[in-house]
Amino acid sequence: MPGGPGGSGIDDLEQSASAFAALRQRFDVVSLAPRNRSDRAEFPTHCGRSGPWVTRPKDLAGYRALARTNQEASLKCRQADPELFDHLDSRSVARDLDAIRAAMGDTEVNLLANSYGGVPAVAYAREFPSRVRTMFFDGTGDPTASDAETDAIDYPNRERLFGRFIEWCDIDPACALHGEDVSAVWRGLLATADRTPVPATGEPPEVAYTGFDFVITAGNMMKNSARWSALAQGIDLARDGDSAMFVGWVRQSLGGNPKFPALPLARAVECADDAGYPSYAAYTQARHRGERLSPHLPGLWQRMPLMCAGWPHPVANPRDPLPAGKLPPLMIADQALDYPATAGLLSRVPGSGGVRYDGVGHGLYLLGQPCVIAHANRYFIDRTPPATTTICRP
Q1: What whole-number distance in Å separates Cα of residue 391 and Cα of residue 354?
Q2: Could you report the per-residue pLDDT of 254-310, keeping only the tens digit for each?
Q3: Bridge pairing between strands 353-357 and 331-335
Q4: Three-class SS of residue 355?
Q5: Are 79 and 103 in contact (CB under 8 A)?
Q6: What is the pTM of this model?
């Protein structure tokens, strides 16, 4: 199952064919370009590439304004094909997958779920548990966890990472903030930007960055320590009134968008998959929770739920529990930074196991990480997952 949402499993197979060489000696490897891929010809191109920027509302009026903006953008894209737009959820993708299984004449499937592909994989496990032979979750997080459960793991995890960034600045003169109180500089920047957004050289005024914009961008940049030097330089520039380095990194990463947008096609998938807040009260609770758990990156995990403010339809694929007694043991794998979140799945089905990769990488099987591939292939063959203490190293 491809990630994204919006990715194509066919593209994944073409780009990562060598990773499947050993597995193909024992299995046919099949994938799909799912109905919710971002390049659907039925919709205008911009629906999968740009949209209104995600903001963090200060009050109920701001939340309602964000909801209206999100909804207007989605309704414009929905007009192209309302029937398809209303059925891009992962539960529908799971049913498509089972139709493929039936067409192939198989009674069971072995699933490799990559990144967001874990959401339709979990939906498949709920809908068709007796048809699951094996199920491998690679960098998926835990799609069954509540917002509070996810926040309790993810915020402290990223806060520890920010602590390592501070330690690096303390010891390495290459850090542009070396010799300073990095925590105070960063938190001061966030407070200043929330009062008066920081403009960027060469950008229109509306691109000015709020504290939330800085948090979202820094939270993504810092996952790779190779970017820490650029992050420190960006902070140094931003406190002097120029957010250009942050904007430049986002433009490079997001196809020209200067901020993280609420893509209408992604909304049609993730909001139908229960990613949003059910109310303004739930949003404020999550906001306070993030501020308490992560003083350096408050609101980091609110981008996706806020993208769903204003979603007008019922949730099509709720985060219901897995039918644990009807499923075989699962396998997971993830890089050390994100492993605690994905490891939540291990407690959902008895006998499950996983691999922690002590390196950097998202979607380790497709990346060709040999140790992870070896453990996963053994699991696919004999249906026995690795021990929960298993570690792979670069």
Answers
A1: 9
A2: 989 999 999 999 999 999 999 999 999 999 999 999 999 999 999 999 999 999 999
A3: parallel
A4: strand
A5: no
A6: 0.93
